[in-house]
Each structure stands twice: as C-alpha cells, then as structure tokens.
Specification:
- There is one protein chain.
- The protein is built from 9 helices and 9 strands.
- With about 260 residues, it is α/β, with parallel strands linked by helices.
- Strands 3-2-1-4-5-9-8 form a 7-stranded mixed sheet. A two-stranded antiparallel ribbon has the order 6-7.
- Helix 8 packs across helix 9.
- The longest helix has 15 residues, at about 210-225.
- The chain is globular and about 50 Å long.
- The relative contact order is 0.12.
- Residues about 1-20 have low confidence and may be disordered.
C-alpha cells in the first residue's frame, strides 16, 4: 500500500453489520461524497487539516444567504429534526452567532455525536430541545411565536398527509409574520402517498410542486395564516449523492426543495 492510500485508511471501527445498522442509504466508504464545501466546513470550523478530515469522519462514523443574514441581525433559527445539527455548524462557520440557534429531535443521542464530530462542545451556544414535532404538549411550546427561520430538511416526507399537516401547524405556532421555512425532501412528478419499505413501515406523502402548495394552503386555512410557497423538483446530485446512494429509492423519486414565507 502506498503512502496516499495509508493516509486515507479508516481506523478499526465497527461497521454497520456489527452495529446492526442496515439503512439502505448508509455507505461504508465516503468516496467522492466529501465535497469541497464540506471539507471547508471541517477545516475552517473544526480546525481539521485535509489530511485529518477523512479519518476523523470515519472515526465518528439564495435561502441560505437569507438565513445567514437573519441570524447575523439577531433573529432566531430552528433546525427541526436536526440529527447531529450539522446545518447549525455550517451557519456558525460562516459567521452566524449561535446564541439564537435552536435545534430539536426526538433522539438526543445525535447531539452528543455532533459535539464529538465537530469538537465544539464548549463553543456552540445553540439550545438543543428533545421533542416530537407531532406532540402538541412538548418542550417546543417555549418557542411559540418566536422563531424567524426554520429548517425542516428530510423531515416532512417521513409522514403521511395528515401528519404533515399536523407538523406544519406546529411550525405555524412557533412562527410569526415574516418567518421563513425551508428545506429539501423526497418528492416526485406525482404527489402521492406511498408505503415505506423498511421494517415497521408507515405511509409517506411524496409531494410534487402542486401538492406541496396545497399542503400549505390547507395549513394556512386551518390556522388563519397565509404562506407564500416556492418549490421545485430536481436531482439528488446537488446534495452530492452518487447513483448508488439513491438506489434504494423508487426510480421516480426526485428532490423537492422548498421555501415558504409567512405573509400574514
């Protein structure tokens, strides 16, 4: 093995089989998925050199600019379904103060992994809240009427239509006039409810542009609010995903990106 190969060799860590982990989108090898912007984040924010970065990752196994400007002006931001909260770190690396950042997920263990991954336990001032967006009596109540921007990436598509309405209504409660909601998720040319294929599968509503607009029209009518909706379908390649990364999806699946702003 030559020197270059040795520098990229993974440390001896448990693979997904050892952990009982079998999600179809998981890959044992990072390969070309580590894009320049991602490398920049870890080098600039975490102080990791290019030679350290891949080993470190293995061992831990137009709207963006708007959000950044909002945070720099003192507005608040919520990462809804945050997992390891990597999006908070991207914003922080680009100069956003973290005091007005909030992040929530139903699994708090993600946050500990995030701290280890980004090495910022003592510097990230964001507030993490363990809560279920479908629980009307959760700790999210403390944020009602106070959030200026919400990121809901790869979240709403986990639910069927009715639960998506419920989740969006919860977002409405935390919003105010001018609040921006943005994200990306699975969608397609046809808006339809489909059954998931993994164990314990449930129904997921896959939106097209028209059905996503209808979702927010219904939410607005039922909450007495109005929302300006922008959505478009595209290819998952813009997320840096390779063909093998999306092989588990239905062939007709596409990436739906959206930006929704509360007008009244």
């Amino acid at each position: 093995m030559n020197t270059t190969q040795q520098s990229l060799e993974r440390p001896e860590i448990a693979l997904r089989e050892d952990l009982g982990f079998s999600a179809p989108w998981y890959r044992d090898e990072i390969g070309p998925r580590l894009r320049p912007a991602t490398r920049e984040l870890f080098e600039k924010y975490c102080g990791l050199s290019d030679s350290e970065l891949e080993r470190h990752l293995y061992s831990i196994s137009s709207d963006y600019g708007d959000v950044l400007d909002r945070l720099k002006s003192g507005q608040s931001f919520l990462d809804l379904g945050c997992a390891m909260a990597q999006d908070l770190r991207r914003l922080a690396a680009d100069g956003a103060p973290t005091e007005n950042m909030y992040a929530t997920d139903v699994v708090s263990d993600f946050w500990e992994v995030g701290y280890d991954l980004f090495r910022d336990r003592d510097t990230l001032n964001a507030q993490f809240i363990k809560a279920d967006v479908l629980d009307d009596e959760s700790a999210l109540n403390a944020l009602d009427g106070s959030i200026d921007a919400v990121y809901a990436g790869s979240l709403l598509h986990l639910f069927g239509w009715e639960k998506q309405v419920q989740a969006c209504k919860r977002i409405v409660r935390m919003s105010k006039v001018g609040t921006l909601v943005l994200g990306g998720q699975m969608g397609g040319d046809v808006g339809e409810e489909v059954e998931t294929k993994w164990e314990g599968g449930s129904m997921m509503y896959m939106h097209n542009v028209e059905s996503f607009g209808e979702l927010w029209r219904q939410v607005g009518e039922e909450t007495g609010t109005r929302w300006n909706v922008k959505a478009e379908l595209g290819d998952f390649k813009i997320f840096g995903l390779e063909k093998e990364d999306v092989a588990w999806m239905r062939p007709e699946n596409m990436l739906l990106q959206f930006s929704v702003i509360r007008s009244t």
